[in-house]
Amino acid sequence: MKSIRIYLLLALIATITLVNFVSLLHGYQASMEKAQNLFDARLESTARLIASANSAQVADQNIAEQQTPNTYFQIWGSGGQQLLTRSRNAPDEIIGQLDEGFHEVNHASYRWRNYVYQDRHLNRWVVVAERIDIRYSLAEEVVLESLLPIVMAIPLSALIIWLAVGVGLKPLSVLAQQIRHKKVDDLSPIKMERVPKELTTVVNNTNALLIRLHDAFSREQRFSADAAHELRTPISVLKVHLHNLKQRFGDTDEDIALLKTGVERMGHLIEQILALYRTSPDQAAVKFEDIDLTKLVQSVVARDFEQFERKQQRIELDGEKILIKGNQFALETLVQNLLSNASKYTPEHGDIYVSISSKLGEALLQIEDSGPGIPTDMHERVFERFYRLHGDQHASDIIGCGLGLTIVKDIAAMHQAEIELGTSRFKQGLRVSVRFRLEEKK
Amino acid sequence: MLLNAVIITLREVLEASLIISVFLALSQLLERKLSWLLLAMFVGAVGGFVYGQNLGAVSMAWDGMGQELVNAGLHLLIFLSLLVFMTSVPHQHKKRWRIVTLIATITAVVVAITREGSEIILYLSGAMSIPNMLLPVLIGSIVGAGIGISVGIYFYYLLINMRLKYGMWLGYLFLLLVAGSMISQAVEFLIQADFIHAGKPLWDSSNLISERSVIGQLLYALVGYEATPAPIQVVAYVSSIAIIAVATVISYQFRTPPHDD
């Protein structure tokens, strides 16, 4: 069932049509029968009237002129042996039989209904006949006048039903509209005035579900934030002890180098979990402001320039001033993660190209590296939480936890931006394109 | 006159509306687009109008047997479309079979509406040329069409609101009976054209259920009811149903595991 409104309209109209039209047919048949009975009664009284008005017992050569072509009469005398008089259009012979009562006969290419009246007093027979088709047409004309409004009422009923069903279904469309217009981060209960009985369960259960969802989200966020925050301190202490160990045993100790990598990995993971929490699309109350995307990218490149310098990578930035609506911290995290990935996977002396442009109401941020790239069939999976390309077989010198691109995806969703992975302009490598919608100038 | 108009319009509209409602419901149950069916209905209506307007010329063809032969051909075409439809449905996971099903559906709907529509056009244009007949014929046609379309709407919603499996089987059963009715009517036209000898009617149930009653019309549209069928009609009816039923069962037996090609 595609639409309740159309279903109700069609089902109700079909029911009204079926019931009305079947009763119309019965009414038509009954009325026609009644009309025929009336015509018969009239025919009988006409025959009696003619018999009483005309008492001739010998043949009259004058043929009565005052008859309509749809009816005729005959008066037979001598027990039906002699035609005493007749109307002009009447035959001069007996059509059918002279039995008292109603009969149907054929005359002059038409079917007639006659009434034979036996005038016992004068031993005569009076025959009065009417054309059946004319009787039928007259009766039908009268009956149809009464049926026409029933037929005409069907389209009117359809219109009224359409409007009534629309009004009846309004609470449902109001509810649907409320749910459709709910922001992704809005887990507040649905507020509806005068909830109809049929929707009470739906609204109550949906609201209960939203409350449970809100509580579950809050618990998850609190746990992630608290855990990451509480872990920061011991990590910092570990780093201090590590520094002391390096001072004592020197940089060349293999165990210390492994310990350092492990601590850095753990520190990175905790920072990313914190970033994930802060940039989740479900995170309420994010402040959006006008941000110059190129300036923001420049500042992140300048801040993290040390990572490119360490690997002697060339980074080129090409962009113009483009203002987008966004959250400063979240966008910085997005650019930082993409640049960090580009640097991590680009070999030493490799190239990184960053461009910011605008076209057709979109701001396009592209970061291209000269690393190994990502196979096309993995483009979807790399955005999953804790998923890393090649899993544990990853080059051990690249620190990562599989959350970077998840965070990027979340931030993009928060800004209603689209991410696309592709091939970079270099011999090999990955190109990440993020398309932000630009607000229309008023 | 009104009753004649009701009976003639109801007979044609009921048959077409039941066929359309079953195809609409089955298309929805098979998750197919309905736009093709709507287009087929429109083409069928245009075809019915054109055929109805030219029935005079068609009747004169083949020594005055044109109308009977063309009508027998159209009924045979609907039967073949139903045969193809029912045997192609079990292979819906293959694209080329889906196209075959779609073509069979469109053909059946276009031909059914053309055939039934032409009868209505022929009757209306004939009846309305008689003085004072406009109102009774018009009201009678509206009443007949209204009842026919209403039953079609009920049947459609009955099928789509049933559980998928039962809806499919009821739709299948109806198409099976329609297929038998199509062949029975084709044979009737060939009898009228003196191509086949009719013989004595096998039975006469007109006292029990008159072909002119609403129930008689409903049964005619649903199962091809005839009050006085010729023996050859009954044989053709039963054989055609058996052919489609066996072909459908064989088609189900030979369906390949689902994979898209």
UniProtKB/TrEMBL annotation, chain A:
Annotated GO MF terms: ATP binding; phosphorelay sensor kinase activity
Gene Ontology cellular component annotations, sorted alphabetically: plasma membrane
UniProtKB keywords: ATP-binding, Kinase, Membrane, Nucleotide-binding, Phosphoprotein, Transferase, Transmembrane, Transmembrane helix, Two-component regulatory system
Enzyme kind, highest EC tier: transferase
Superkingdom in the source lineage: Bacteria
InterPro entries, A to Z: HATPase_C_sf, HATPase_dom, His_kinase_dom, HisK_dim/P_dom, HisK_dim/P_sf, Sig_transdc_His_kin-like_C, TCS_sensor_his_kinase
Signal peptide residues on this chain, from the entry's feature table: none
Protein name: histidine kinase
Lineage start: Bacteria, Pseudomonadati, Pseudomonadota, Gammaproteobacteria, Thiotrichales
UniProtKB/TrEMBL annotation, chain B:
Entry's transmembrane regions: 6-27, 34-52, 72-90, 97-114, 134-157, 169-191, 234-254
Subcellular compartments: Membrane
Database matches in Pfam families: FTR1
Record's bilayer topology term: Multi-pass membrane protein
Molecular functions (GO terms): ferrous iron transmembrane transporter activity
Keyword vocabulary terms for this entry: Membrane, Transmembrane, Transmembrane helix
UniProt-listed InterPro entries: FTR1/Fip1/EfeU (IPR004923)
GO cellular component: high-affinity iron permease complex
Principal place of residence: membrane
Family as reported in the entry's similarity comment: Belongs to the oxidase-dependent Fe transporter (OFeT) (TC 9.A.10.1) family.
Official protein name in the record: Iron permease FTR1 family
UniProt source species: Methylophaga thiooxydans DMS010
